[in-house]
Amino acid sequence: MRESQLFFKTQKDFPKDEVAINAQLLLRANFIEKLMAGVYSYLPLGYRVREKIIRIIEEEMNALGAAEILMPALHPRSVWDATKRWETMGKIMYQFKDHSGREVGLGPTHEEVMAVIGKTVIDSYADLPRAVYQIQTKYRDEPRAKSGVLRGREFTMKDLYSFHTDEASLAEFYEEAKKAYTKVFTRAGLKAYATEASGGDFTKEYSHEFMVETNAGEDEMMLCRLCGFAQNTEISKLKSGTQCPKCQSGVLDKVTSVEVGNIFKLGTKFSEPVGFTYKNQEGRSMPVVMGSYGIGIERLLGTIVEVHHDDKGIVWPEAVAPFKAHLLRIGEATPELQRLSEETYHALQKSGVEVLFDDRERASSGEKFFDADLIGIPWRIVVSEKTLVREKVELKRRNEQEVKVITLNACIKSLTL
RNA sequence: CGGGAUAUAGUGUAACGGUAGCACGAGUCCUUUGGGAGGAUUUAGUCUCGGUUCAAGUCCGAGUAUCCCGACCA
């Protein structure tokens, strides 16, 4: 991709109002654009990161045996009346009437719709267990959108639902889902702790929140730095003291964190009210036992920025970076330098390296370096008069100081290892 | 939804109640080209409504928006 043709523009100044680092950096580097509080557009760079995250999630969900579907964002009131949540979710749900007076709402979550769909697919114990997920836009009339992209009014959620004959089957899947979640976050460059939490609205049983330690967070968890055991602060209050209940030798520290995902055992809470049942082997109708598992895509993206940045800009983990390499043509674009930069660009592309080529004629070298640091692509390749005379290129990692002057072939080799 | 703060050009900032200025950006021309280049020139602004006043960006009231702290969520 040529930077001269990409639809974005970095900003020299920090946005005045924003305090959250993810908002400052993502807005300044123009990954995103704010339309209103908690509602953002994703420009090419942000879009690419978002897509990378989604691909990782899809891979791990598919590996779990879940199939991807897509449910609507617009729901009729009737679906929500079955569980009485039209009323109880009223505060946070965008609800309105269409032109013919029908009451409709934008989905803040999809348990009800899911159960309705489930009814058409699942009839018998032979149809179970099953798992489906979607990556879809949620709408929540948050009383307070905040922290940039961390809490939005419109955001994308991966929501996975599992269906079982009994609690044992659910528990088994739940553990697999927990592992898959850990994989997702690890691949996205985050250390997420599966903390025990109360089930909240959904279930009396415990649930797990996936917490990432960062000051930008709005949650707290109790963390043992020795063994990595983590616990929700509420649960921690009820149970143990400050000693780690797992390794017995560590101490639980209270740390600020962001909840990037959570998993719930729903049981029959949503299946019973809508009559979502299956026939067991004796031919009796039984409510389907459900689990639900969520990840906030943009929150995850924002959290990555909160964790991976320095004073110059973002430092993307390679797996979610908008591009793998950032090629900068530095100095006057003489025919010779043009030749070397184009050659480098094409060679990288041919080798399958995702590369952003800063071929801008009018940007100064300083501007290109600053932008490259701000955008945070993992590998920086520089071609200039200096490298031209030796027929080489410079290779530098965003998170390291060392600059290597090497041949184009050697450069490609280190990028395609 | 309670509490606090802020609102001036695309962005960031000035202006005693009395001529809305500066920097960046953007446009044109020239010179530049290894860490946000220099000169010339052009461009664009007081959140909305009401009030006080000879006069309001500035004072008062209401509204709206944004950010922050709480309560709630991925």
Kindly describe this structure:
The protein has 417 residues and is of the alpha+beta class. The chain has two domains: 3-310, BirA Bifunctional Protein, domain 2, CATH 3.30.930.10; 323-415, Anticodon-binding domain (Rossmann fold). Helices cover 31% and strands 29% of the residues. Strands 3, 7, 8, 9, 10, 11, 12, 13 and 16 form a nine-stranded mixed β-sheet that branches. A hairpin with a 5-residue loop joins strand 5 and strand 6 (103-106). Helix 1 (21-28) packs across helix 9, helix 2 packs antiparallel against helix 6 (167-187) and helix 2 (44-63) crosses helix 9 (297-307). The longest helix is centred in the middle third of the chain and has 21 residues, at 167-187. It starts with 20 loop residues before the first helix and ends with a helix. The model has no long low-confidence stretch (mean pLDDT 93). The protein binds one RNA strand of 74 nucleotides through residues 9-20, 34, 36-37, 91-92, 108-109, 138, 140, 142-144, 146, 150-152, 155-159, 200, 209-210, 218-219, 258-262, 294-300, 328, 330-333, 363-371, 373, 382, 384-386.
